[in-house]
Amino acid sequence: MNSPDAAFDLLATPIAWAAADGRILGANAACARWLGVSAKRLAGMPLAALEFEGDAFIRAISGQGEGARLRRVPLAFPGAEAPRFADVTLTPREHGGWWIEAHPVDEFPGDDPAQLLPSALSAALKGLAHELRNPLAGLKGAAQLLDRRIVDDATATELVSLIESEVDRLTGLLDRLLSPAPPRPFEPLNIHAVLERVLRLAESDAGWAVRLVRDYDPSLPDVLGDADRLTQAVWNLARNAIDAGAANITLRTRAEHGVRIGDTLHPIALRLEIIDDGRGVPEELAERIFLPLVSGHAAGTGLGLALAQQVAREHRGSLAYRSRPGHTVFTLLLPLWLEEEETPDG
């Protein structure tokens, strides 16, 4: 994709140009480098797809064609772990469409934990991955030595095989954390199938010690998302409830109309609640509960809630909670996909 003026590629300022409907027509080399992709991958994308959260671009190009100046817009190519921030100027082009000029600013303004979360979580996960690789290799080596010494003991052989397979699975997970593959495209999925997977994990983990209750709305349309990531997020929330000593855990789904998530108003959203009667969130952690490495119990890693919130954001949703001893509710809001609508990639 060539610039309309070759001189644009000599500029250090990220610049792009778009059609009147916001579809990106081109970008200079500085813009592509700043977003970490090639200029060709930007061509044809909706400008709004680069906005990590919010709808400032949509509102700007839907105005009266007078341009706009936007401050601290979080920008990222779809699938990126964290946004980059820029002050953006939109100027009308002579023959229709827009010039977009980005002036990068500090990536993480102020001391807002929500802005720091994606980068902090990524750093924490990668650090943890590095620390765990060597112990896992040692465990696999020990399991292989045991396997050679076992004679005529089918049960022991099966247990050693289980250890080896779980070590391989965890090693694969660490490899993905250290060298992440591109995210999979979101697909329409039944949220209740995700919740059933979580309930099976909970039953295996807690056995009869916890009563698990389904309170589903069967009329819900599909969610557009990644089933594995959503399963992990909800399982983290359920596991926290188990660790908090809950005797009852309820998974409740409802449809909610006219929901605002961040700056975006959605016609319909899924309200998923994980309700438990455990000890609740410690008061001293209430303001920091979603930060990486913050945990309410000694054996915790402090990554479960941070990861759950990151998954919610990946799906353009939100995660919040309210808690008191004996009654804690974590609420996950996710936009629902209506069949008459096009998918975000459509």
Automatic annotation (TrEMBL):
Q: Which reaction does it catalyse?
A: ATP + protein L-histidine = ADP + protein N-phospho-L-histidine
Pfam families this protein is in?
HATPase_c (PF02518), HisKA (PF00512)
Coiled-coil positions:
none
Q: What is its EC number?
A: 2.7.13.3
The record's annotation in CDD domains points to: HisKA
Domain Histidine kinase, chain residue ranges per copy: 127-338
Q: Which GO terms describe its molecular function?
A: kinase activity
InterPro entries associated with the record: HATPase_C_sf, HATPase_dom, His_kinase_dom, HisK_dim/P_dom, HisK_dim/P_sf, PAS-like_dom_sf, Sig_transdc_His_kin-like_C
Q: Which UniProt keywords apply?
A: ATP-binding, Kinase, Nucleotide-binding, Phosphoprotein, Transferase, Two-component regulatory system
Which PANTHER family does UniProt cross-reference here? SENSOR HISTIDINE KINASE, SENSORY HISTIDINE KINASE_PHOSPHATASE NTRB
Q: What protein name does the entry list?
A: histidine kinase
